[in-house]
Amino acid sequence: MSDIRIATAEDQILLDKEAKYCSYGDTVHYIEPPRIFSRCEGSYVWDTEDQAYLDLQMWYSAVNFGYANPRLNNALKQQIDTLPQIASQYLHKGKIELSEMIAVDAKKKFGLDGRVHFNVGGSQSIEDSLKVVRNASNGKSLMFAFEGGYHGRTLGASSITSSFRYRRRYGHFGERANFIPFPYHFRGPKGMTKEEYGSHCVQQFARLFETEYNGVWDPKTNQCEYAAFYVEPIQGTGGYVIPPMNFYRELKQVLDQHGILMVSDEIQMGFYRTGKLWSIEHFDVQPDVIVFGKALTNGLNPLGGIWAREELINPTVFPPGSTHSTFASNPLGTAVGLEMFKMTSEVDYGAMVMAKGKYFLEGLQDLQKRFPIIGDVDGLGLALRCEICGPDGFTPDKATLDYMVEEGMKGDMIVDGQKLGLILDVGGYYKNVITLAPSLEISYPEIDLGLKLLEQLLVRATKR
Question: What is the extent of the structural domain holding 108?
Answer without folding.
Answer: 75-346
